[in-house]
Amino acid sequence: MASDHFSCSIGKDSVSKVEAGLDSSDIHGADIRFHGVVRKTEDDREISAIRYTFYQDMALQELEKIGADMTIAFPDHRAMVYHRVGEVTVGEASILIRVQTKHSAAAFEICREYLRRIKETVPIWKKPVFV
Amino acid sequence: MASDHFSCSIGKDSVSKVEAGLDSSDIHGADIRFHGVVRKTEDDREISAIRYTFYQDMALQELEKIGADMTIAFPDHRAMVYHRVGEVTVGEASILIRVQTKHSAAAFEICREYLRRIKETVPIWKKPVFV
């Protein structure tokens, strides 16, 4: 789903590949990119990766709903969310949330709120791959 | 200045070039990158760029001080700050603040606090280049 204000996708590409394709903006003075990275331990046990699975239609639908709600709550921002699925190795990012605003103050709050909502409601499941 | 916890630099390279050289981490689950971007208007007048000048020794010294203070205030984070100087064209970033934390909640607060302090005390001056 893509609009002027919000776009989202789910796929197997690395976050860095997706990020390389992002356009710049000359009307947004603040551009925040949040990366959620796979850490090397899960419940104090060493892991090599996390395998992400998702319920495709519902996950995208839920992301779109979050984007629509956030566009109403914070009209003056632009955001994109990318969630990687499949096996994501330790040290790599599984999610990218990019938020652009005219001024910096709002960007942190908006980005944090996207993350909170995504964690709460988007049906993407993680399964650690133990070493 | 570089330590395990904090590094900072000021230079003429683009932020994207600097960002391409960043290492990943397998102990930090949150990785935030704030880009401060040059917008196309300044005081309602169209500009083509902003020219940044700085008082080199004092600017680096002040960044180091902020890093040291922040490391005491928030011991469990890693950060790097890069400020670009010279002419930065509209749509390009003049500053990168990267903050890594184990969990996501703290990262936003810490990154925002770096930005606030840098704006407040680091002697880097901006002069718009009007079209």
Description:
Chain A is an alpha+beta fold and 131 residues long. Chain A has a single domain, classed as Aldehyde Oxidoreductase, domain 3, CATH 3.90.1170. In chain A, 32% of the residues lie in helices and 41% in strands. The first copy, chain A, is built from three helices and eight strands. Chain A has helices spanning 15-20, 56-73, 104-121, and strands spanning 6-11, 30-37, 41-42, 45-54, 77-84, 86-89, 93-101, 124-130. In chain A, a hairpin with a 2-residue loop joins strand 3 and strand 4. Chain A starts with 5 loop residues before the first strand and ends with a strand. Chains A and B meet through strand 2 and helix 3 of A and strand 2 and helix 3 of B. Strand 2 (30-37) of chain A pairs antiparallel with strand 2 of chain B.
Draw up the topology in text.
2 copies of one chain form a homodimer.
Chain A: E1 6-11, H1 15-20, E2 30-37, E3 41-42, E4 45-54, H2 56-73, E5 77-84, E6 86-89, E7 93-101, H3 104-121, E8 124-130
Parallel strand pairs in A: 1-5
Antiparallel strand pairs in A: 2-7, 3-4, 4-6, 4-8, 5-7
Helix pairs in contact in A: 2-3
Put simply, the count of helices of chain A is 3
Bin the helical content of chain A: 25-40%
Oligomer type: homodimer
| Main interface: chain pair and counts | A-B, 29 and 29 residues
SSE order of chain A, one letter for each helix or strand:
EHEEEHEEEHE
The neighbouring-strand order within the major sheet of chain A is 1-5-7-2
Q: Which percent band covers the strand fraction of chain A?
A: 35-45%
How many structural domains in the coordinates of chain A? Answer: 1
CATH level 3 topology of chain A: Aldehyde Oxidoreductase, domain 3
- Average pLDDT of chain A, rounded to a whole number, is 95
